């Protein structure tokens, strides 16, 4: 018989025994649905996290001053052993200075686009009349503000004149304006705003309002949300009395530069050039690109591991397929004997029952894929992520369904092919 005729015969068999076929496919359906749901959910979370972190600047390099991981000590007896980091207060010489940044800009001019500098003033409470809002004040330079990619809703951004003259001007979020100025962005521009830091009030002038975008990882309510207040870098340095330099900054790399490789280059150069003789501190570098790669790899590994565990139910489903095929062969012994008496070869009998097992598994696999996608869609929507169908999971599921059909269908099919036609015709 042709393969097409075998498929039609198998489908007719499914329709004739609907309940038995459904119960047989149940293991396949559950297994496939579990694998698809887990892999789709994993891919969706991975895609959302990767997109969110990439928007923060995946190709940028963050460098910072950190305690040296260990120091070697030699005892009086001459033995050398390592100790943990010494928590030493940073001195003026330990900070990253403007001279170091100028050196980096000149040495790596082909790779460095600029430096994103910031100075944290701290968390405070902005107040207008009887209304208050929680803020986090950060002093930024022009490159930092550009890298933040804020959407300006009213007013203007911070200018070079604001930076040079250390003006007490700020950019605030529309969420703060909603709390303190009834959501009127235009009227908020030009208003004085008092902010309480450590029991001391500072007064600033609002020059611009930007659109607040909630972080993917945020879980606080709108009432408790802390929004960022941007002010000129020099204003922040004056307020914090910081004259030493920077403990951390971000290097904005040019297009085509591998942030991961540049991390190693910068870290090696600065430690050899400036921190070689520093006993307590060194420069450490990291890139969002390497973090994204590590997180994506970790999420993929976890998803595959859980999917593999869920896939065990497929083996149970395969055993169910083998069991029902053996029962089917017993029930159709006379049919097999008749076909063989009419000239059917062992190969055609074997192919017929293998095709029935494959069709049974494929139909179960299709139902499982639909069910798995439905479960994954509901789960990702409830978690607030965008659904990202796992193409790999779907292809693997279909392929595995066919494999199960062949593997678990071969033994019953081979048993049917080897039946003696005379004994089969005598079977009652």
UniProtKB/TrEMBL annotation:
Domain ABC3 transporter permease C-terminal stretches: 308-421
Family, per entry: Belongs to the ABC-4 integral membrane protein family.
UniProt-recorded name of the protein: ABC transporter permease
Cellular location(s): Cell membrane
Transmembrane stretches, start-end: 21-42, 304-329, 357-379, 391-411
UniProt keywords, alphabetically: Cell membrane, Membrane, Transmembrane, Transmembrane helix
Pfam families assigned to the protein according to its UniProt record, in alphabetical order: FtsX (PF02687), MacB_PCD (PF12704)
Membrane protein topology class: Multi-pass membrane protein
Residue ranges annotated for the MacB-like periplasmic core domain, each copy included: 21-261
Lineage summary: Bacteria, Bacillati, Bacillota, Clostridia, Lachnospirales
InterPro entries in the record: ABC3_permease_C, MacB_PCD, Macrolide_Exporter_MacB
